Structure formats: structure tokens, C-alpha cells
Amino acid sequence: MKFLVIPEDFRNDQHLLEPILTALLACLGFPRPKLRVCRDPLLGGIDEAMKLERLEEVINRHWGMVDVFLLCVDRDANPHRRARLDEIEMHFTPRVRFLACEAWEELETWALAGLDLQGPVRWAEIRAERDVKERHFVPLAASRRLTAEPGGGRRTLGREAARRIDRIRRLCPEDFDRLAGRIDALRQPES
Question: Does 191 reside within a domain?
């Protein structure tokens, strides 16, 4: 199966999504998973990523080359985000296989879940934090002197986190593990 991940903005998100989701597909037993992050068009933010017209543009551009379209956005403490993502999924189903997920609260949370964190911060605090990127991820990247690399440390930290998919699933059940279950269900024959 060929997966196209549609992020809010690929410029940073690709460095987390590509290694983590490729590792998830392998863990779920997809033989030689093929996953690409959508770079064309650049959506450039949550508002654009949630517009049906922009998503239609992505689907039309990649039609026939992709088996599953996967929209991955931040939840950003928006309790209505899931309902909107469900609406988007319904719009595209059954025309294409389209899954939408929201990372609580930001994609960087998934990377942090796969890493050994130092200091007094407990996981429950990170999971409840609205601004995970600013409060936890950026300081970690800075402490490891990774901010000058592509994605501000996301390349290295995303690859490291991808080695611990089971841990990410366990620590992020509402979003990442739920996504894993939905992707796994794609392998089942349609009835």
C-alpha cells in the first residue's frame, strides 16, 4: 500500500511524520510500506489543511498514485477538531481511502513519547500541555544542540522516537494508538 501523509505544513512536520509513521506501518505488518509526505502543494497551516478545496487539490494531484490519504494535524486544544476531521473523512469516503487524525496537542508529542526525557517533568504534564512544542520539544532540541538541523531537531528526534513505536502507542492512546488501529483495519478485506 502507498500512503500519502498530508500535514499542516510539511517543512517541519515531515521530519517527524515520515520516520514515525513508516515505523508504525512496519510494526503493523505492512510489507515494505511506502509512505510519502505531501510537499506539493504546501498547505502552510491548520486552516488550509482543513479546507475541502485544498484537500481536493491534493487528492486530484496524487490520484492513482496513492492507496491511502492520511491527514495529520495538531489538535491545538480544540475539542471540536475530531468532529471536523470526521466530516472531512466522510466527504472523501468512499471515493478514496482517507483517514484524518489529530495529535494531542501537537505532533511533537508523539516524538516526545518515544524519547527518554530527563528532568522532573512527568508524562501526564506533557500530555496535558497545550503548547508542547514550545514548552517541551524546543527546549529538548536546544539541550541536545539540534536546533540548527532541518526541522529544528525534528529530523534526529523523529528518527529516535520511531524506534519506540510501542511506547508511543502506549503513551498516546487517544490519538496515536487510535490511528494505529484504524490503519491496521485497512489490511482487512472489505466486506
Answer: no
Q: Residue 47: left if φ>0, alpha if ψ -120 to 50, beta else—which one?
A: alpha
Per-residue pLDDT tens digits for 50-87: 999 999 999 999 999 999 999 999 999 999 999 999 99
pTM over 0.90: yes
Count: domains in the chain: 1
State in Å, rounded, how far the first CA of the chain is from the last one.
18
Q: What is the largest CA-CA distance in the chain?
A: 51
- Mapped onto helix, strand or coil, the DSSP state of residue 35 is strand
Q: CA dist 36 to 65, 66, 134, 168, Å? A: 11, 9, 27, 20
For residue 191, pLDDT over 80 is answered with: no
* Phi, psi angles (nearest 5°) of residue 140: -65, -45
